[in-house]
Amino acid sequence: MSGKIKNGIELSKQSWDALRQNRQLFAFPIISMVMSTLVWIILIIPLVGIAQPILETGEVMADQVWIGLGIILLGYLAVSIILIFSNTALVGVSKVLIEGGEATIGDGLRIAFSHFGKIIKYALITATVGVVARLLIRFGSKSDNFIVLLLSTLLGSTIAAMWSLAVFFVIPVMVYEILSVKDALKRSIEIFGKTWGEGFTGDVAIGGISCLMVFVILIVGCGLMAVGVVNNLLILIILGFLVVVLGISLSNSIYGAVNGVFQTSLYFYAVSGNAGPFINTEMAQEAFLS
Predict the structure, then answer these.
(1) Residue 280 carries which DSSP code?
(2) SS3 helix, strand, coil % of the chain, rounded to 5?
(3) Are residues 172 and 180 in contact, defined by beta-carbon separation less than 8 angstroms?
(4) Band of the pLDDT at 133, cuts 50, 70, 90?
(5) Which residues, at least 6 apart from 221, have a Cβ–Cβ distance to it below 8 Å?
(6) Which residue range(s) make up the domain with 118?
(7) d(Cα 286, Cα 272) in Å, to the nearest integer?
(8) When comparing pLDDT for 67 and 39, which is higher?
(9) How far apart are CA 274 and CA 264, in angstroms?
(10) How high is the pLDDT of residue 114?
(11) What's the Cα-to-Cα distance from 162 to each of 34, 117, 130, rounded to whole Å?
């Protein structure tokens, strides 16, 4: 088991190296971060408008909560679309490079736009599953009943974990096999059924680093917002919010890009027997059950 984890970590390092060495691949997390930032800059204006009277009066109205929640959910969906679009473009370019061709950033964008309808559907499904899982976990955390706390947290965490595994190959499948979102999900589950070890531990290694980055970002950003609330300083609240949003956007973009290279390489091995130039084929082979 320790050998599989070690190989999984090594495969994640190789995926990161591939991203750094191919500038056309590294461009997509940058594009994703910039677009995600623009979305939140646009949405922060109405959020500030909602927060200002709350800070002045100390009273929170129900309609303010619902409007604020709606704006945040809209931003979450928009950012999900951007991330999936960016990763689809990255997978498209990776596909060409793995097959020995040459591809530009424009080629990746054209590939992503050709799947734009499916990207929106996939983002809606992913956002819905993510919100349901988070609501279950949050519901449990607010309950005084230990059984309710345990079950809701377990259910929410299980849904999130199972979904992340089920969709592991969805984007490569959409790009390579030109399937609908529904069929791509089925195909992803089918392929994942053949893989475990490195396919899972590699994703955990990449995700673990991303989670550590997010943890640090949340400490800094939430700290600034807390100081702003205590001292009634709107500028610190806005600054803290921006640190959280921009930092998480950057972390998610890099995580998605590295994972995109990793998933595409494993997918390529699953259907061809050769992992391509980005990761070691022998290590990829060990990820698949005989």
Answers:
(1) -
(2) 85, 0, 15
(3) no
(4) confident
(5) 240, 241, 242, 243, 244, 247
(6) 2-286
(7) 15
(8) 39
(9) 11
(10) 93
(11) 30, 25, 11
Count of domains forming the chain: 1
Contact between 199 and 192 under an 8 Å Cβ cutoff? The reply is: yes
Phi and psi (nearest 5°) for 22?
-120, 100
At residue 260, φ and ψ (nearest 5 deg) are -65, -45
DSSP states of 53-70: HHHHH----HHHHHHHHH
Q: In one letter, which amino acid is 189?
A: I
Half-sphere exposure of 177 (CA within 13 A, CB side): 21
Give pTM, 2 decimals: 0.71
- For residue 107 the two structure tokens come to 């080629």
Instruction: Give the pLDDT confidence of 155-175 residue by residue, as tens digits.
Output: 877 787 778 777 878 898 988
Measure the CA–CA gap between 3 and 5, rounded to whole angstroms.
5
